Amino acid sequence: MTERAGARPGGRSARVQEAVHQAVRELEAEGGRGAVSVPAIAARAGVTPSTIYRRWGDLASLLADVAVERLRPDGPPADHGGLRADLEAWAEQFAEEMGSPAGRRYLRDAVAGAEPDGAAGRCSDHAAEQLRAIGVRAAGRGEAVPGVETLLDAVVAPLVYRILFRPDGLSADYARSLVRAALKD
Questions:
Q1: In 3-state terms, what secondary structure has residue 6?
Q2: Percentages (nearest 5) of helix, strand, coil residues in the chain
Q3: Under CATH, which architecture does the 11-57 domain have?
Q4: Residue 179 · residue 89 · CB < 8 Å
């Protein structure tokens, strides 16, 4: 079976998603969260409101979808030569990026759209993939590596709690202390 001539990866669905996501980002940048509504997004994206409702269901789910895309890591975690150094650098960067006003808003949006297989789960998967990559690299160097779920519980969960509810206690030192505790250093 051959591919249809001129077939485009993603096609219309990918173009609609990108246009809608871009419209959300532009409206937020121009007028804050108060400027974001389904009719405004639809007009900016060149689609009908029913397209947005059909695809995302409601504004909260759309904002959660945009948040997950914004929270997706750009690439693999940096290699600093050892498990502890890699985890500390990753945790510090996570705390800094997610602790920013934009990061905090995206985390809240992802959690607000929390369905079992929804945005919050995809957001968690991003962190798990990064931790898994760090672990695989460390295991290849012969280091003992805690499981991904252990690292999610010991490092990521407390960071997210601080980011969302107690940002005054968020710091690079705090992120590093979570890694030390997870590694029992």
A1: coil
A2: 75, 0, 25
A3: Orthogonal Bundle (1.10)
A4: no
Its pTM stands at 0.78
Nearest to 23 by CA among 39, 51, 42, 49: 42
Q: Encoding tokens for residue 183? A: 């590694």
> Which one, of 155, 25, 182, 183, lies nearest residue 95 by Cα?
155
User: Has domain 71-183 been given CATH number 2.40.160.40?
Assistant: no
Q: How far apart are CA 156 and CA 144, in angstroms?
A: 19
**Structural domain spans, the chain:** 11-57, 71-183
Q: Which of 124, 129, 109 is nearest to 56 (CA)?
A: 109
Residues in the chain: 185
The 10 Å CB-count burial string (b at 16+, else e) for 4-41 is eeeeeeeeeeeebbebbbebbebbbeeeeeeebebebb
Tokens at 180, concatenated: 């030390």
Rama region for 12: left / alpha / beta (φ>0; ψ in -120 to 50; rest) = alpha
Give average pLDDT by consecutive 10-residue segment, the chain, 185 residues.
41 88 91 90 95 90 84 89 97 93 86 71 90 97 96 96 92 97 91
**Among candidate residues 84, 69, 180, 173, the one with its CA nearest the CA of residue 135:** 84
